[in-house]
């Protein structure tokens, strides 16, 4: 990456994607499978104008997984350079023991499939992942961020 791209990624006025690391008792992170892709990702999404980052993270977590946690349970991790055109603001929530089974999770956020014209969920699968799983499942930008922080 050239210096111009690095400088651009540090800009504070770039769009902000807000997400949540849901961590279980084994120290694994909740990942969502991105529909139509080979990649797994955190529940995250773009901050709406005027919306606080924690509000965006909570909204996206609910839309992409159906999970809701009290705001007081969210611990701010911080902001990260994600892509040259986007920054990432992350929060952490410790999952209750009852969340080990992910079979009830559902994504209610949809996109229109370009082939069929029908709505499809943004996320179509859920799993717990270790740090080594992240290396295999996530894209390079998400790997870089997740492997740089303590869960």
**CATH domain class name:** Alpha Beta
**Helix segment count?**
4
Average pLDDT number: 91
CATH topology: Nucleoside Triphosphate Pyrophosphohydrolase
Portion of residues within helices: 10-25%
In whole angstroms, the N-to-C terminal distance is: 27 Å
Gyration radius (Cα, Å) is 15 Å
CATH superfamily: Nucleoside Triphosphate Pyrophosphohydrolase
CATH architecture: Alpha-Beta Complex
User: How many β-strand stretches?
Assistant: 9
- Main-sheet strand order equals 4-1-6-5
Written as H for each helix and E for each strand, in order along the chain, the element string is: HEEEEHEEEEEHH
| Main sheet specs | 4 strands, mixed
Domain count, please report it: 1
Structural class: alpha+beta
Strand content: 25-35%
Runs in which pLDDT lies below 50 for 5 or more consecutive residues are 1-9
Shape: globular
Q: What's the topology here?
A:
Layout: H1 3-9, E1 16-23, E2 29-34, E3 40-41, E4 44-46, H2 53-65, E5 75-83, E6 86-94, E7 110-112, E8 119-121, E9 123-129, H3 131-137, H4 140-147
Parallel strand pairs: 1-6
Antiparallel strand pairs: 1-4, 2-3, 2-9, 5-6, 7-8
Structural features, described:
The protein is an alpha+beta fold and 151 residues long. The protein has a single domain, classed as Nucleoside Triphosphate Pyrophosphohydrolase. Helices cover 23% and strands 33% of the residues. It has four helices and nine strands, in the order H-E-E-E-E-H-E-E-E-E-E-H-H. Strand 2 and strand 3 (40-41) form a beta hairpin. It is globular, with a radius of gyration of 15 Å. Mean pLDDT is 91; it is low at 1-9.
């Amino acid at each position: 990456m050239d210096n111009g791209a690095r400088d651009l990624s540090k800009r504070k006025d770039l769009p902000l994607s807000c997400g949540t690391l849901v961590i279980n008792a084994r120290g694994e992170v909740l990942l969502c499978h991105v529909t139509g892709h080979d990649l797994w990702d955190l529940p995250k999404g773009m901050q709406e104008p005027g919306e606080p980052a924690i509000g965006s993270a909570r909204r996206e977590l609910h839309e992409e997984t159906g999970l809701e946690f009290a705001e007081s349970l969210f611990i701010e991790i911080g902001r990260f350079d994600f892509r040259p055109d986007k920054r990432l603001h992350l929060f952490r929530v410790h999952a209750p023991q009852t969340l080990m089974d992910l079979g009830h999770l559902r994504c209610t956020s949809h996109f229109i499939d370009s082939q069929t014209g029908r709505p499809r969920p943004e996320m179509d699968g859920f799993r717990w992942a270790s740090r080594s799983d992240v290396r295999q499942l996530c894209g390079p930008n998400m790997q870089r961020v997740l492997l740089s922080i303590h869960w």
